[in-house]
Amino acid sequence: MTSAKALKTETKSETNKPEATAVQNGVHNRMLGIFKAREAGLVAIILIICIAMSFASPYFLTWQNFRAMLLSFSIEGIVVVGMTILLIVGGIDLSVGSVVCLAMVIGGKLFLMGLDPWSASLIAVLACGFIGYLMGQCVTRIGLHFFIVSLAFMVIARGLSLLITKGTPQSLFSLPPSFKFIGQGDIAGMPFVIILFFGIVVFFDLLLRHSTLFRKVYYTGSNEKAALFSGIKTKRIKIVCSTLCGLLSGVAGVVYMARFGAATPQFGIGMELSVIAAAVIGGASLNGGAGTIFGAVLGAALLSLVTSSLILLDVPVYWQDIIRGLILLVAVSADHLLNKRKRSTSTKS
C-alpha cells in the first residue's frame, strides 16, 4: 500500500516536471525580451536628459559633475544590487538603510575598542548577513511576509545602532590610510568606490544572466509552485537572496564608514525608498520574477541624473523630493500595468 502510494506520488512528480520546465523556458525567453526593451528605454531617457542638460547648464558636461553623480549613487548602488535580487525572488527589504547604518556602527565601535578595521568590518558585514538570514528564516519557516519582517528588523537594527552608540556619532578619524582608501582613494583618477561598485555590478549581472543557480531566483519569483515541481528548493533560494541583500548592505556600510571616517546612528534613514525606486525603475517587479542588475543600475543612474540636474537648475530641495516621488509612482504604475497585461494575456492563452 505504501509503495503504491509512493509510486503514484513519484509518477505525478515526473508528469509535472516537463510542464514546469516548459514554464521555466517560457518565463526565461519572455523576460529576456522585456529586459532588453526596458534597459534600452532607460538608456534613451538618460541620453535625452543629458542632451537637454548640456544646453541648460554649462556645468553639466564636466568631469567634476559626472564624478559627483557617480559617487552619489555608487555606494548606495551596492545595496541596489542586493535589493534587485531580493525583488526578483519575490521579496522586499525595508531594513536596508538601518542595516547599512548598523554595519557602520558595529565596525566603528569594534575599531574604537581596539580591533583592527579589517576584522571589525568583516564582523560587521557578517552580522548584517546574519540579519538577512534571520529575515529569510522568518519568511520561510514561520510564513510571514517579507514586508512585515523587514519592517520589524528595520526598527530593531536602528534601535541597536542607537543602543551601541547611545545616540552619539562616533568619530573615526584615526582609521589607517589603507582602510580609508576604500572610500576615499583613487586609481588612475577614478575613485576606488566607483571601481568597486562596477565590479560588484558586473559580477552579479553575469551571475543572474548566465548562472544556473541564480536563474532559479527568476523561476522562484515568477512561479514558485512550478519551481517546486521542477525540484528547486525555493525556501533555500529565498534565504540565500535575503542573506545576500544583508551582506551587500553591510559592505555598503563599511564603505560609507571608510568614506566619511565616522559612524552616525541616524545614517541611512529613507535609503530604502531610493534603493527600491532604483530597482523598480530599472525593471524589477514588486511581484517578483523580473529584473536585472544592469537595469537597476540604470534606474539608480537616472535618479542621480535627475537630482544633479535639479540642483544645477536651482530647483528648491522640496521640489526635488516631490519629483523623485512622482518618478517612483510612474515606475510602480508602469510595473503594475505591465503585470496586469501579462496576466490577462496568459489567461486568454
Automatic annotation (TrEMBL):
GO molecular function: transmembrane transporter activity
InterPro entries, alphabetized: ABC_transp_permease
UniProt entry keywords in alphabetical sequence: Cell membrane, Membrane, Transmembrane, Transmembrane helix
Membrane topology: Multi-pass membrane protein
Subcellular location(s) per record: Cell membrane
A Pfam family assignment: BPD_transp_2
Highest taxon above the source species: Bacteria
Annotated transmembrane regions: 40-60, 66-89, 118-135, 142-164, 187-208, 239-261, 267-286, 293-312, 318-338
Basic and acidic residues bias: start-end ranges: 7-17
Extent of the signal sequence: none
Region (Disordered): 1-20
Keyword check for Transmembrane: yes
Protein name according to UniProt: ABC transporter permease
Organism: Thalassospira lohafexi
